[in-house]
Amino acid sequence: MVLAELFPYAHVLYNVLLVVYILTIVATIGVIVSENRNPVKSLAWVTVLILLPVLGLVLYLFFGRSLKGVNLISRRSLRKLKSTINVPEADVPERRSPANSRLIHMVDNLTDAPFFTGNDITVYTSGADKFEALKRDIAAAKHYIYLQYYIFENDRIGREIAEMLIRKAAEGVSVHVMYDHVGSLTINAAFFQRMRRAGVEAHAFMKITLTQLANRLNWRNHRKIVVIDGTIGYIGGMNIADRYIYGDRRGTAWRDTHLRITGPAVAAMQYSFAIDWNFSKRDQPLEAKPPAQPINPPARGQAMQIVSSGPTGPWNNISFVFLKAIAGAHRCVYIQTPYFLPGDALLKALQAAALAGVDVRLMLPRKSDSLILRLASGSYLKECLLAGIKIYFYEPSMLHSKVLIVDDEFATTGSTNFDFRSFEHNFECNALVYSREFNRRLKEAFHADQQCSTRIILSHWKRRPLITKAAESIFRLLAPIL
Known about the structure:
Strand content: 15-25%
CATH architecture of the largest domain: 2-Layer Sandwich
Structural class: alpha/beta
Number of domains: 3
Shape: globular
Number of helices: 19
Number of strands: 18
Distance between the termini: 50 Å
CATH topology of the largest domain: Endonuclease, Chain A
């Protein structure tokens, strides 16, 4: 009876909902156009909204919105945190090559990143070595430990690190742990709850709730930073997971690159951690702390900048760094990345460098942890090969290393993949190092990996199956949100 009475008004309800939906779509398109994004990307979203009713709007809400201009914390808090960074007298660009001097200046303008000299850097290409060093430093901590990882697995190494942190908290050491909620979504909540009950401040970055699902699902904190007593820092590509030590399902350990840094630059890593922490835990702000003991930098230490990047900034900071470094190359550009989904500008920069006679080499994993990303990456390789870029597939295991080496004096590594997500959607952090000695060490590691790799030849690449080429082209369309 009730349904019969309501039925005459069903068409009215339908028309009202249709008008509301159309107005929502028109308003959303207005927002997209007003943001003045890349025209191709804006047009793509407008097309999706028009051609895919309802689904297009849902996709845009989750993956299309921009966070640019959003302040993670107040400017006053930023100034207070930054006031504790002691920048030693530097020989800044005057003693650097013209290309690196301009790069340093650009980075300073982009992010106000201090230029630090007198840092000592240890390079780890083995997960076993990196985690042994990290465990020694955690065990020796006296005052505080700040630990931030995209993924903190509840596996053998994860439980070992967790137990150590619990013991340090019991000793009175201040322990703060931050993990990405999406990256660690499969980890049982009890794993982190146990740490919290034992006195470890362990919290998720941008914790996802039902009401915040659309606002937070697409934004990931991909940074891997550890700061111990303000004097020791770790930064790189390794998460806390057994696969970097004991291997994955195939039984082979992932190949990655990580740095252990001592010296003044550790303060910039602590600054980055504090910003993320204070955004995530506004009710428990982290006060910036000076080093537990004075830092006496080595006279012949490494010069570097620590650069953070994220979707809230006005610029895609690390993308700009890569673009400027590649454009200024004269002799060589070496890249290691697990996923290769470059924007148009970076792809053209690599092609232009290779066509100008620069030795451009790109190393990717033969066996990726993501079939979709491997296929999407493959769609770019023909364009690279045509320009003379040398491409290598690393054979032994999953290559998760994120390295850019340019000429003889510049190299960078950190959490940033060479893809849209890292450049535009993720919160990332990289160490930029201006040093011939450091550059040489990373080149030696690259050449060692090259011995375990297969070079891809254009004539062979063209002969891959038609269905593979079709899949690559389809998934390339999704590259901006992968």
